[in-house]
Amino acid sequence: MQLYAGSTLDFIEDANLHTIAEKIGDAYYDYFRHRAGASEFNSWQNSLAALAQQIRYAQLRDNGIVVELQLPSSSARLDCIIFGKSLEGAASTGVLIELKQWSEVLPSEWDDCVEAFVGGGVRKQLHPSRQALQYAQYLRDTSEGFDPDRGGTNLLPCAWLHNMHPAAAGALLDASFVPLLQQAPMFIQSDIDRFASHLHAYVGGGAGERVMNDAISAPHAPSRKLLEYTARMIAGEPTYTLVDDQLVAFNAVLSMVRRAHHGKRKKNVVVVNGGPGTGKSLIALNLLATLSLAGANVQHATGSKAFTSNLWRVLGARSKAQVKYFNSFAGTPDDAIDVILADEAHRIRTTSNSRFTPAPRRSTLPQVDELISAAKTTVFFIDDFQAVRPGEIGSTALVREAAIRFDARYEQIDLRTQFRCAGSDEYIDWLDQLLEIRKTATMSLGDAQFDFKLVDDPVELDRMIKERVSAGAMARLMGGFCWPWSKPNADGTLVDDVRIGGFQRPWNAQPDARQLATNIPPAPYWATDPNGVGQVGCIYTAQGFEFDYAGVIWGEDLVIRNGEWVGQPSASRDTMMKRGAGARFTDCVKNSYRVLLTRGMKGCYLFCSDAETVAFIRSRL
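Request: output the structure for the sequence above.
Response:
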């Protein structure tokens, strides 16, 4: 998706007529079904007018230009690519330009970052050249049209800060950025001639509209799965390409770890806060790989048996010394570990004690305090709206309060770019508004690019998921915990507990099930084993994983009555929730359905068993 694509001559004319921002704003509304904010509109108006003048000065008369191109499977949009043939060799080329209106910047102690006035305050931001470079690499990774090895257009990233005076650009030109600027040049207010020469050399050969159309119409590469790449990351092979706020978070942690190693003994506490698909686990595993290769004593921890078991399977048995649970750090001496990466930290519990903890080993510390105490730097990856069990208390507020108790240096990075749900922020906003989890402006779903369907029959839902699997996609069927969950039959097969009319399927195996039939995966591997498609997954086996397509059965534990959400414990078969949630029952069930409905990378198909709730959801489509 792009908000503007055409010839450079048309672009210049639209800018001269002062209609470029209006055209892009209208395209934005047509696509997202709400108006862009004033700051974004003003950015288009100012930066694109300046860009049009630069294109005219560079005499680019036979070129293509795309503005606000959305990255595949992401909500991130890059500013601009100008297409054409190079003067030397006539190669198909795109100059990717990161536009900034900045007029002043300050240095930052975080790698690849500077501080700039953004969003009403001074914030740490990626160096514009790094941002452009990451966008270019991401496009090469995910689209055939931008991968020269597959016949695509060669991308040349750069940054243009048209308001930046040379006297104010010192932080951007620091010696530490020299290697970066060699890969992605930066141009400022005084570089008009140099920038024009750069554009003319690489796309001045013309034929740009054909190059543009070939590039943006090419197929996208299959979405990459996190666990498939984890072993390669640990081995030091190329990792996922982190972009925007993901890379800011990654570099923030590396900078704080480096500072801790240089004798500054104050503890570091970092919160990386983000919704579904923003890449929290992706950042955590990139950090695990990078810090391990650098020789740091780094530990990865979660509260999820399924996610941890799959990491052990992917990384091998030796990884158990490095990949643990939150309750593994009781009694660990202070600062014994360099870094703890607390993934899915919303699943942190009050304490690490359980009914199996012997009396002499019971801890009096809160679990969050144990994690901070044990490490010089502790990083918490959190979604404040993913706590789905009564004992789960992890939140940004909880961690911030604990950091104050330890007099630790505290940093919080909020992730906004998401890489699930086909990159549709609209779908996430719509879902959160629908469930009244947070207020958004998205009251109806409209024409979101995410493939969402409300299905009338669970048999049809099951068929749709299996069709996707037959076509080569990763897809799973999941459900709210509203049906009994039986032990396996004597022969190891599973009981068809989920019954709705003519539909009947088993849940995934119980966590403690033994001697399962050969085609039944143990519970921790339901999400990743191909045989998991034959069962309905529950929230506890689905959370933390992603699929190409998600099928969801919504039971009667959460229904609409007279326009309000009502939690119905009587419809739930989750004994832990019914006993322990109390007043939190409705919120926990809302979060559970939010988790299930955001597992899909490309699509989600929903069957709901309550007629009034179906009518309400349909009215919001």
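The chain has a mean pLDDT of 89.
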